[in-house]
Amino acid sequence: MRNLIFKGYSDAATPEFIADYEAIDIGLFYKGVMDLFPQTQSKIIDIGAGTGRDAAWLADLGHEVTAVEPVQKLSDAGKRLHKQPNIAWVDDSLPDLEKITNENQFEMAILSGVWQHLNETEREIAMRKLSKIISPNGLVIMALRHGIASPNRPVFAIDVDATIEL
User: Fold this and answer.
1) Disulfide-capable partner of 153 in 8, 33, 81, 134 (CB 3.0 to 4.6 Å)?
2) Residue 91, number of CB atoms within 10 A of its CB
3) How many CA atoms are closer than 13 Å to the CA of 19, on its beta-carbon side?
């Protein structure tokens, strides 16, 4: 299923798609949780980084960002558009994040447009992994998508309460 989703995003990664993604206003997107972002330099992982829009914003704020993106067309666009030296790109994905191995290494994780692509079992695995790589006082911020998706990028329904319980 993951390969189908990755292919769906790769096929969709047109210049127009990338421009639309980059044009999203970060201030509006994170408006409800803006006060939760670290005020001091921190290590943050952006899982499903896409073109690196959010990673670049965080890097510009002085954070050290690991941008995780499994779709090469999107990460290539991100590397081309966002050349900040404090962004490290990693080709990996949930639920396993096999290349991210150090425990307690991040103060925050952000996931935007990711969680809906994981089924319930994968979400349990992913949350266990997140709990290992995030510091004890760290935060995970997710943008949850509900509703119909593109047929070539299937999604699973999200139970918010079940996600919180994980």
Assistant:
1) 8
2) 11
3) 3
CATH code, domain carrying 25: 3.40.50.150
Q: How many domains does the chain have?
A: 1
- Neighbouring-strand partners of residue 88: 66
H-run or E-run covering 143: strand 134-143
97-118: pLDDT as tens digits: 999 988 889 999 999 988 888 8
Range of the domain at 93: 2-32+41-165
Q: Tell me what percent of the residues of the chain surpass a pLDDT of 70.
A: 85
Q: Which long-range contacts (C-beta less than 8 Å, at least 24 apart) are formed by 84-87?
A: 84/56, 84/59, 84/60, 86/59, 86/62, 87/52, 87/55, 87/56, 87/59
Instruction: Mark out the alpha helices in 44-89 (DSSP H runs).
Output: 53-60, 72-81
